[in-house]
């Protein structure tokens, strides 16, 4: 996808023209399919036009290049589940790690596919931060704040370490694409790796 070599033609960019939401969603969904099934290097205006039936001109109006399109796809992903309110920090963290009990879903597969490419793309790194880093930060803040509200103390260092460990677990999941595990193993991860750092002083 390279506007410098493929001209949009007479149906070029129109300043101030609003996006067609349904068409945009169709392109983004099609782009996600292409990336997951064929890899990010196969993403192009021609590939998207073939998959979605949307003209190359319409694609160029929305995204100047592949990096911008990839970043938007990733930003729209929701690979981090909402953290449940189970009444305990342990239960909340076990619920947060529910993805480990199943194979990677569609959004996770996209993140796993583009992760290495983000090293060379600031836009894609920003998309991954929006999709993974910020939701995990929010989940940690929610879980710890609930724990404190129940009358427990959490050292500042413990809050930071919990966030770092969870982020490391998430990246490791996408890099290694492990098989689904059991609820028992997830609970052991929480008991042996996560809760001790929250309780440290």
From TrEMBL:
Alphabetical list of InterPro entries matching this protein: DNA-bd_HTH_TetR-type_CS (IPR023772), Homeodomain-like_sf (IPR009057), HTH-type_TetR-like_transc_reg (IPR050109), HTH_TetR (IPR001647), Tet_transcr_reg_TetR-rel_C_sf (IPR036271), TetR_C (IPR011075)
Entry-linked PROSITE patterns: HTH_TETR_1, HTH_TETR_2
Tell me if Transcription regulation is a UniProt keyword of this record: yes
Where in this chain does the record put each HTH tetR-type domain? 21-81
Q: Any idea which residues the entry calls the DNA-binding region?
A: 44-63
- Residue ranges, annotated region (Disordered): 1-21
Superkingdom, taxonomy of origin: Bacteria
* Keyword annotations from UniProtKB, A to Z: DNA-binding, Transcription, Transcription regulation
Query: How is this protein named in the record?
Result: TetR/AcrR family transcriptional regulator
């Amino acid at each position: 996808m390279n506007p410098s070599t493929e001209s949009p033609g007479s149906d070029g960019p129109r300043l101030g023209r609003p996006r067609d939401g349904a068409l945009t969603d169709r392109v983004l969904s099609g782009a996600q399919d292409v990336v997951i099934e064929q890899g990010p290097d196969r993403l192009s205006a021609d590939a998207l036009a073939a998959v979605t039936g949307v003209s190359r001109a319409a694609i160029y109006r929305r995204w100047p290049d592949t990096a911008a399109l990839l970043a938007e796809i990733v930003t729209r992903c929701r690979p981090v589940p909402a953290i449940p309110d189970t009444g305990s920090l342990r239960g909340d963290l076990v619920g947060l790690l529910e993805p480990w009990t199943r194979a990677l879903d569609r959004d996770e597969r996209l993140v796993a596919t583009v992760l290495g490419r983000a090293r060379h793309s600031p836009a894609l790194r920003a998309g991954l931060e929006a999709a993974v880093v910020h939701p995990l930060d929010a989940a940690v803040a929610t879980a710890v704040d609930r724990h404190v509200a129940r009358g427990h103390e959490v050292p500042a260092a413990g809050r930071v370490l919990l966030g770092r460990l969870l982020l490391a677990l998430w990246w490791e999941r996408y890099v290694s694409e492990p098989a689904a595990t059991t609820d028992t193993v997830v609970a052991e991860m929480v008991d042996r790796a996560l809760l001790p750092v929250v309780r440290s002083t």
